[in-house]
Amino acid sequence: MLELAQGAYIRQVKPLLMVGNPGLGKTHLALGLALAACRQDYRVRFYNAAVLVNELVQAEDEHRVPKLLNGALRQQLIVLDELGFIPFSTTGAHLIFQFCSARYQRVSLIITTNLRCAAWTQVFGDERLTAAFLDRLTHKAHILEFSGAESYRFRERLQREREEGI
Q: Cα dist. 68→59, 102, 105 in Å?
């Protein structure tokens, strides 16, 4: 974990894929790594996956996708949070693929997801596109699997209820 905090994956342009059920700390860890990268003077950008897809679709409607893609290339680390919570439209799936492909081996990427790779076709809606995306993503990736069934938020709520006598 120390290697991750020191940013070796950024210098080596290796993606991090964080997979696990909701509430297990993936976003928390991704934010911590992004903050550590900022403190080491890396250029970092955080996106929620659904919001990024909406931005990409809007950029396509306004004929400014290349500008958005070039702006992302100026980053050294991009965090793509919550991939898999919301399925993409066909256009959205192609645009997020284009976004990530253009960054392949040029910009480090952290992706958090609640889906195992085998289920990503549900999000992208196309087997070949999903396979191509996963091929690039997992090529040199560090894959961190978060195990557990119970969310930290759920456990915290139960603890609060116990303390309040509810």
A: 7, 11, 18
